[in-house]
Design goal:
With about 260 residues, this protein is an alpha/beta fold. Helix content is about 40%, strand content about 20%. The chain has one domain (about 5-245): Ribokinase (UDP-N-acetylmuramoyl-L-alanine:D-glutamate ligase), CATH 3.40.1190. The chain has a nine-stranded mixed beta sheet with strand order 3-2-1-4-5-6-7-8-9, sandwiched between helices. The longest helix is centred in the last third of the chain and has 17 residues, at about 230-245.
Length: about 260
């Protein structure tokens, strides 16, 4: 039996804890065959980003086009797209696609370093968000997209609803890991017609490098396998929490200890 295929469009992380490498580990753990289209190369560890080298947008276009022509892809996720030009390429290729598109709007690394050029935010708002199946922002990212402060549980609830009102055909999986002074973190899956909550206890970890990549990749894997959005979201939430629980001592999540049937 052939495995489902998922494509990740993202940056390459030399420490392999985030980006394309984390996505591939997550896909494999879910029994999904992963394809990659690289946007840039990032010199980083869980603690720091020292350099970013972007591939030409034309090279990104060639990668995506060839893979779409060559493989029966069941889900696509985007991670670090880096610039307005790279986002435009993705949108031009995928705007009429019927393949589920999971958008992780990567803007800032866990270390605090910026991962997106100025000017890209408006392209995300105007072109990428409207064609997504589901967006998976954290609290700072949804704040940038909506241009509002999102720092409390009440802000989180309001932001999730504001997003689906602005983009009624797009689901929002809004992560709550950035909430401070709480022993329980809540993620919210909001659509135009429903809301679901997922809870996990706070973990006191030195790094959470690759958490967003892992969750969005797990969500993409679930959709690639034909799961419903709520089921894929619940499984992605649980998988990511366990990857955090089993984090390696050097700071990266552990993806491969949880093999999915």
């Amino acid at each position: 039996m052939k495995p489902p295929i998922a494509l990740t469009i993202a940056g390459s992380d030399c420490s392999a804890g985030a980006g394309l490498q984390a996505d591939l580990k997550t896909f494999s753990s879910h029994g999904v065959y992963g394809l990659t289209a690289a946007t840039c190369f990032v010199v980083e560890t869980p603690a720091i980003v020292t350099d970013i080298s972007a591939l030409p947008p034309a090279m990104l276009q060639k990668q995506i086009s060839l893979l779409l022509e060559s493989y029966p892809i069941s889900a696509i996720k985007t991670g670090m797209l880096y610039s307005a030009a790279h986002i435009e390429v993705v949108c031009e290729i995928l705007e009429h696609s019927k393949i589920p598109l999971i958008v992780d709007p990567v803007m800032i690394a866990s270390s605090g370093n910026p991962l997106m050029e100025e000017g890209a935010i408006q392209v995300i708002r105007d072109r990428l968000c409207p064609i997504a199946t589901v967006l998976t922002p954290n609290l700072p990212e949804i704040g940038v997209i909506l241009d509002q402060d999102v720092v409390t549980e009440e802000d989180q609830e309001r932001a999730a609803q504001d997003f689906v009102q602005r983009y009624p055909t797009v689901a929002c999986y809004l992560k709550g890991g950035h909430l401070e002074n709480t022993q329980t973190h809540r993620d919210i899956l909001a659509t135009a017609t429903s809301t679901e909550n997922f809870f996990a206890p706070h973990l006191d970890l030195p790094y959470t490098h690759g958490t967003g990549c892992t969750l969005s990749a797990a969500l993409a894997a679930g959709l690639a396998k034909g799961e419903s959005l709520p089921s894929a979201a619940q499984n992605a939430h649980d998988f990511t929490h366990q990857a955090l629980v089993r984090s390696h001592q050097w700071g990266d999540l552990s993806h491969l200890d949880q093999v999915q049937s």
